Amino acid sequence: MRASLMQIAVNEGETVQARRGRVASLVREQAGADLVVLPELWTTGAFAFEEFAAEAEPLRGPTYEVMAEAAVEAGVWLHAGSVPERDPDGTLYNTSLLFSPAGDLAASYRKIHRFGFDKGEAVLMGAGRAPVTVPLPATTLGVATCYDLRFPELFRALVETGAEVLVVPAGWPERRRAHWTLLARARAVENQAFVLACGTAGTHAGVPQAGHSIVVDPWGEVLAEAGAGEEVLTVDFDPAEVARTRERFPALKDRVLGLETPRRDAFQV
What we know:
Number of domains: 1
Structural class: alpha/beta
Radius of gyration: 18 Å
Helix content: 25-40%
CATH topology: Nitrilase/N-carbamoyl-D-aminoacid amidohydrolase
Largest sheet: 6 strands, mixed
Number of strands: 15
Shape: globular
Distance between the termini: 57 Å
């Protein structure tokens, strides 16, 4: 299976409309890949909070239309990153779109864990509620977004529903780049799955981006890693390695689920 992670630069001098067109052209150039992945909020920038409401679009809005057409022209499965989606009730969501080679919307995922604590995305956007997996001909994708990477419970839920390749578009800041690599490898090892983590380049509202998109195998080995600038990271991998890894080292069988929450006084003497 061939995957191309498109580490798009989000720069303030480029309009959203111009970036959509430029990225669609780049997607079309990936004909021959099986899966193409774009980053989180590449239309606006993940830290351009003031742009979320202004650039929010319905699920089947301008980005949907352009990316669906690009998927058809390239003949690829396309994880089109995420966009600020405006629900009919007015709520904003950080929503990922995944298209089949026929241009059909195979799945959408509203980011569950919103970053910002008491500001930014955490207060401007609603939270998704359900994990999303997507069956492809060769494997099953589990979908997460950026800050989700810090919450292993979500990835366990994806594995429970069949995920073998975990796809994580992000707008990860340069100042926490070490966490980006560490967490991508951790999620791969603990779930015995491939991790395809696609970041952005450039600067989002004054926040330098980490870049360094990364592909990790089920043993935690880095198969490929991008640099800091805009680039397309292409890697060939065998999804069947997931089953082989889980058979050779069946750690997932030893999970203990449904643990009781300890009482606060359990260890008092």
